[in-house]
Write a structure and sequence with these properties.
Elements: H1 10-22, E1 26-27, H2 28-35, H3 43-55, E2 59-63, E3 71-75, H4 79-95, H5 99-108, H6 114-129
Antiparallel strand pairs: 1-3, 2-3
């Protein structure tokens, strides 16, 4: 399975956000209830997406000790790990592996306030100190 195949799709990311935000185990009905606040997802679609996330190794589960029909899901990878992987994949696919090319392209495409520009300058200064 290639790197991109292990990453959550956009719809799967919705479920991951709910799981990450919980920080503990969460049932599929609890996930669906929260996801449906932002996306009209059916319970069947949710089950399929959860199955994909488990298969990709991003989510694990335990079976409820009192009711074997209830699964408790938990994240096996952090939000930060998945973001780094997605960023790396995006940079490779759309900017030929050039991090600076991706950063320049992104920054040229958005309006930044003076405060945001100062924050970016501070980040760059900190990065330069660590090299």
């Amino acid at each position: 399975m290639g790197r991109e195949e292990r990453m959550p799709t956009e719809r799967e990311w919705l479920l991951m956000e709910v799981i990450w935000d919980r920080g503990d185990t969460i049932t599929s009905s609890e996930i669906l209830q929260q996801v449906q606040a932002v996306d009209e997802m059916s319970d069947r679609t949710e089950r399929v997406l959860l199955h994909h996330l488990v298969k990709k190794g991003l989510v694990g589960y335990t079976v409820d000790e009192h009711d074997s029909r209830v699964y408790h899901y938990f994240a096996k990878r952090t939000r930060e790990e998945c973001l780094r992987e997605k960023q790396s994949s995006f940079i490779d696919a759309y900017h030929r592996g050039s991090g600076i090319g991706a950063a320049v392209s992104f920054l040229q495409g958005i309006d930044l306030s003076d405060a945001e520009i100062s924050e970016l300058e501070d980040i760059l200064k900190q990065r330069k100190k660590h090299e």
